[in-house]
Amino acid sequence: MTSKFDIFAALHVPGDPVVLYNVWDVGSALSVVAAGAKALATGSHPVADAHGWPDGEGVPIDFARSPMQSGSWARSTCP
Fold first, then answer.
1. 8 A C-beta contact, residue 24 and residue 46
2. Domain assignments of the chain as residue spans, ordered by start
3. pLDDT band at residue 24, thresholds of 50, 70 and 90?
4. DSSP conformational letter for 13
5. Can you point out the beta strands (E) in the chain?
6. CB 10 within 8 A of CB 39
7. pLDDT band at 67 (very low <50, low <70, confident <90, very high)
């Protein structure tokens, strides 16, 4: 079985760098994947901004724990 590390490391090809697109919600992730992205990135600030919350301690804990924020949806969506 190939590890997630091995899959991600294989994207780093000399002369053809992997581009990490910063997504902030499911819609942006699906759009970026549909456009052919090989990998996705995210951070707390874009996710918080997209929902109108300040970065840091302003994101409600129930939202942060939700399956949509955990990335479980991405594992079934991304190649």
1. yes
2. 4-77
3. confident
4. B
5. 21-22, 40-41
6. no
7. low
